[in-house]
Design goal:
This protein is mostly helical. 23% of the residues are buried. Helix 1 packs antiparallel against helix 2 and helix 2 runs antiparallel to helix 3. It is built from four helices and no strands. The mean pLDDT is 90.
């Protein structure tokens, strides 16, 4: 039986996919920061970009982890809405595609209410 558009199960699945994607990217950025040549001057644009990117990834990861840890569908919808309304954390097309699916599922769930 197929899930109807915007069902809690569909939203949870997409949120889990987005969380995994963001966590992978966070690990990559952490690795790049760890391997960055030392000493690092404060004005190093590439390092500052990596640092900002890691910070941008941390907040939506925390929101999604917290929401997915529980079973409250409304909390999951709230966290997903917060994440979906923000600009993508990476430049990866896959993140944009997953975010678009999440926004569509949230809109379908809202329309079904």
């Amino acid at each position: 039986m197929a899930m109807r558009g915007g069902s809690p199960d569909e939203i949870r699945a997409i949120a889990g996919e987005l969380l995994a994607l963001l966590e992978r990217e966070h690990r990559v950025v952490d690795g790049e920061i760890a391997q960055y040549p030392k000493p690092i001057p404060r004005c190093d644009a590439q390092f500052n970009f990596l640092y900002d990117q890691r910070s941008a990834l941390s907040e939506p990861i925390a929101w999604l982890r917290e929401a997915l840890r529980g079973h409250d569908n409304e909390e999951i919808v709230r966290a997903c809405t917060r994440v979906a309304s923000r600009v993508p954390c990476t430049q990866a097309e896959h993140e944009s595609a997953v975010r678009a699916r999440l926004r569509d599922a949230l809109a379908s769930a809202d329309a079904a209410r």
